[in-house]
Design brief:
- The structure is a homodimer.
- In chain A, helix 4 crosses helix 5 (about 100-110) and helix 7 (about 175-200) packs across helix 11.
- Chain A folds into 3 domains: about 5-170, NAD(P)-binding Rossmann-like Domain (Rossmann fold); about 180-280, 6-phosphogluconate dehydrogenase C-terminal fold (Orthogonal Bundle); about 295-355, Alpha-Beta Plaits (2-Layer Sandwich), CATH 3.30.70.
- Chain A is globular and about 65 Å long.
- An 8-stranded mixed β-sheet of chain A has the order 3-2-1-4-5-6-7-8, sandwiched between helices.
- Chain A has helices spanning about 5, 20-30, 40-50, 75-85, 100-110, 150-165, 175-200, 205-210, 210-220, 225-235, 235-265, 270-280, 310-320, 345-355; strands at about 10-15, 35-40, 55, 65-70, 90-95, 115-120, 140-145, 170, 295-305, 325-330, 335-345.
- In chain A, strand 1 (about 10-15), helix 2 and strand 2 (about 35-40) form a beta-alpha-beta unit.
- By secondary structure, chain A is of the alpha/beta class.
- The interface between A and B is large, with 138 and 137 residues.
- Chains A, B: It is an enzyme of class 1 (oxidoreductase).
- Chains A, B: One of its GO terms (molecular function) is prephenate dehydrogenase (NADP+) activity.
- Chains A, B: Pathway: Amino-acid biosynthesis.
Chain lengths: ~375, ~375
């Protein structure tokens, strides 16, 4: 067989039909991959199936790839069970930590030649199959951590899975992955929870003054505590180190503010923290918020009147381009606004030309 | 004059044409209020004027209301200058802290009968007139803090300003306001900066694994450090107290994780923090993210095909309802999606009926 064929994925068994497992299944179904679904919760499998995620797994059918989509602490044992039954040619998982499952898998004597650990960075504050989306991984990073034992075929199969789901494959060492997600995911999650915990004890007046800022800071804190306790357990030391650095900065800021309230001490340390924060946000790839980064944005000037948007989207439809998302920005007090049409990058030029032909103002 | 007339605002002078000042001016212009613009930065005034925010203030014209939109530490002096020149019948400000400007105003001998301190909770991570939006305050809280000295006419004028801008007026004592915003705005801002500061020193690999979560947590940390230093200086003690509570929670979490890495101690304390976070997010009024809460959402099932959205928005346009925003949710792998149409609440029923008449599936 050629490597190309090796990387071919005709069938996948998804073990664990939660948010991530079901979203992977939905994405694979859109690419006409045969998907078998399994979960210790029969209700979760039924719901995933009704959402079009695939068919029930009898345990008999052998798949090209098995995706272990269970909490980190259960990955290795699940992998061992699947390998014992020879359920698939290759295996991966989607746990948010990587070093622990790999170590446990080696300890349990799993076959590490057919297993490549993975982690799509695409959670939501909602969980379960009902929150699943086929486009959850579009343009989002998807880390994978091949060991030295992993066969090239197994690596190719996981890379194929990532590409079928529209993710951005990021090959990284397991230990480096865990240090990285401690900084960009796990410690921010604990911090968001700590900010949100202040709201749990805040006055109604305080909550009534909540703006968009605190909503954004605390959004992820609505996630399932049991799931996240498992994730943090699996990455304890790297997360602890980031939290300790956070505590140092916040303690220093609190001290400066107390000193100020007392004798008017300098705020230089606080300003420095805020400035480092600005630098940090500037280093995050891609735009803040908005749809997945694989979309291109075509901005069109429109009058802020009933029917105007309809005429625009009608015109866009005539160009045959599918609009993935729309944002309206009433940028000024004038009777003029800008509509941002999000489309696949390859469609942006056709849409721009098509709209200009139809007399629409498309700047740039 | 009747109280109604007293509350009438035919002209407003906005001193400080930054994000908030210019947004207020744009909102007032949409309501045909005459707006005079002033800023120590002539370029900021010019840009605001070109955006349609109003006309230059010569300093001669007397307005019904003067809005002092300068950083907190300059509010009192600016108010005194305006009152000395009898620039307006009534005065307010938009600073993010309230006790300090009020104390300084009293200290400087400002006329507290014509001044009512205010604070619209509607910032953006962008600043300056170019980022201004007439709809910035739609459905957002707008705190105002009348003192005992404030005349009913002055209070009515500020309430009128808030309603003209579409804000939700929240009457609150200045000290309580400052404690509240420390919890829902100022401490979250410092915390977001501390999380973002970790990114400033993180590896490219780590940044490459950034997902939506860390983007949301750190979005506000991109704001101007000088502006925020001034805000935090003006609310030092309440912010310090919240930061200290945050530090206690994060230190405890770090200790639990270190202990776990050592001897596998219980994670109960961490789970408890996460659970308190979930409770906290649940107490924030309104939905997370999305457009201002004054909008009603009409959800419509649509096929995920080119032209389908065009037909829907066309149909919506035929109902004569103006669509404020649109969100698309490709909830499943099926060829079916849901479009969320955001409209003024009073228009939701007409839109629902109109769409159903035209054969669209509008659930609920």
């Amino acid at each position: 067989m050629t490597p190309i064929e090796d990387a071919g994925i005709g069938s996948v068994v998804v073990v664990g039909t939660g948010l991530i497992g079901t979203s992977i299944a939905l994405a694979l179904r859109q690419r006409d991959v045969r998907v078998f679904l399994a979960d210790r919760d029969a209700g979760a499998v039924r719901l995933a199936r009704e959402l079009g995620a695939g068919e029930d797994w009898t345990g008999e059918q052998r798949a090209d790839l098995a995706v272990v989509a269970v909490p980190p602490q259960f990955v290795a044992q699940q992998l061992l069970d699947l390998q014992k039954r020879d359920s698939a040619r290759f295996y991966t998982d989607v746990a948010s930590v990587k070093a622990l499952p790999l170590a446990q898998a080696a300890q349990l004597g799993c076959d590490l030649t057919t297993y490549v650990a993975g982690h799509p960075l695409a959670g939501r504050e909602r969980s379960g199959p009902a929150a699943a989306r086929a486009d959850l991984f579009l343009g989002r990073p998807w880390a994978y951590c091949p060991t030295d034992e992993a066969s090239p075929r197994a690596v190719a199969a996981v890379e194929r899975l990532i590409s079928l789901c529209g993710g951005n494959a990021v090959r990284v060492d397991a230990a480096e992955h865990d240090r990285a997600v401690a900084v960009v995911s796990h410690a921010p999650h604990v911090t968001a929870a700590a900010v949100a915990a202040r709201l749990a004890e805040a006055s109604e007046t305080a909550l009534g003054l909540s703006g968009q800022g605190v909503r954004d800071v605390t959004r992820i804190a609505a996630s399932d505590p049991a799931l996240w306790t498992g994730i943090l357990e699996g990455n304890a030391l790297p997360v602890a180190e980031v939290l300790e650095a956070l505590v140092d900065d916040l303690s220093a800021a609190a001290r400066s503010l107390r000193a100020l309230a007392g004798d008017g001490a300098a705020m230089g340390q606080v300003t420095d923290l805020l400035s480092r924060g600005v630098r940090g946000t500037g280093r995050i790839p891609g735009k803040h918020g908005g749809p997945a980064r694989t979309y291109a944005v075509v901005q069109v000037l429109i009058g802020d009147r009933p029917g105007e948007l309809a005429r625009l989207v009608q015109a866009a439809g005539e160009t045959g381009v599918n609009i993935e998302d729309i944002r309206l920005e009433h940028a000024t007090g004038l009777e003029l606004g800008a509509a941002e049409l999000y489309v696949r990058p390859e469609a942006a030029e056709a849409l721009t030309h098509g709209l200009r032909e139809r007399g629409w103002q498309v700047p740039g």
